[in-house]
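Bumping with the actual sequence this time:
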Amino acid sequence: MVAMKKFWKILPLRDGGSDGPLPPSEYYNLNHWKRLFYRIKYRPRRVADLVMIFFSIFLEWLGSTLLAPVTPWYIEDLAPDMNQGTAASILMAAYAVGTFLASLVTGPLSDRLGRRPVFLSAMTIYTVAQFLMANAWDIGSFAGFRAMAGVAAGTRPCIMAYLTDSSRPIDMKLYGVFMGLFVVVGQSLGPAIGGALASVSLSFPFYFIGVISAILLVFMYIFLRESLVKDEHGMPVNRFARRPEDKEPPANKYLWPTVVCLAIASFSGQYLQINWSTVFGLVGADQYHLSTSENGGVLGIQAIASIVVNCIYLPLTHLLESALLGSIGMLISIGIIGVPFIDNLVGVIFLGMCIQAGTALYFAGMAYFNSVIAPPKKRGLINSSVMGAANVGGIVGPLVGGDLYDLDPTYPFYLSVILSCHESLSEIFK
């Protein structure tokens, strides 16, 4: 027992690197790629921390859409007597429920306990939940275990706080792009992987993700460091302030109105994404008679638009303000209204890419927005407020989308257009 306690005390392993020969002023004048290679050479532990954080994002959001292409088959297996739209809504919304509940507490909790304990706890729950989902016996148990898995994705407020703790605000544009890329790639590969692995058995995708997440959990226990730094009074501080008086930014009377605008935009963007994933699974099976792997492949193709947007986002910010880019993105998303009025799969894929590209223009800048407005002692709280609103959209999207689809296949798309316009206005006023 004593030996075990001593073992846990040495975790995470200490960082043996150095800051290298360059002073901070010269280091920050390097471009992003040169700084990456410089870090790999002199302080690889920082790079390892970021790799684990971003891979956890990828894994969590891969899990959110893993079910999308096989939803009709899971409904047939777990709830054959239930209305298809309602059952699809329950299955897809369960993950978002867990994400929402966790996002409300992980930010403030990480302000008190630290970022590392929150990460490790959430990833442990996520890993266990994957194996439980693989052995679910009805739709109720599956939804409950899926909500457990969603808890891990609810750590995004903590992730943004972690990055803000250890980075300059200007660097958050780059990290916001990385977050967007890993979310998009995870969401896009989820249907493709889920559809392909489900050809082995319906439960096999969850065993596969469970093993991968268990491996990541071990690495995080051993290597992931704490980012939160507190002063002698136990208050979080700004590590990148040049003067002592800058460690806490001046009071901002527009802080919470700005947070409200961010929350509205995040709700709308997440609704659009999750609603489309839910409804397309039904449209693909009902209207175009796609198989599980074909359904997943088509959703994966659409995500190319999001990947492209995230890759060009930084150059775009040199031309237009991030808030304006987000507003333009929501206007692009309005194109989804054409889906129920065309009978062409290629056209549907193109319009789906409009949704993916439009929402990516907002979410790529969200980490930067939050880092600019959030004082150190409220980082977790503000990130939780914004991400909580986004996760409400993730719950409402499949619940409303599935039932609206049962009433009339055009109704989910009308609501998507209304929310696109709403989010565009929120971006402008923000």
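The tokens above came from a reply further down the thread. The CA atoms of residues 337 and 413 lie 5 Å apart.
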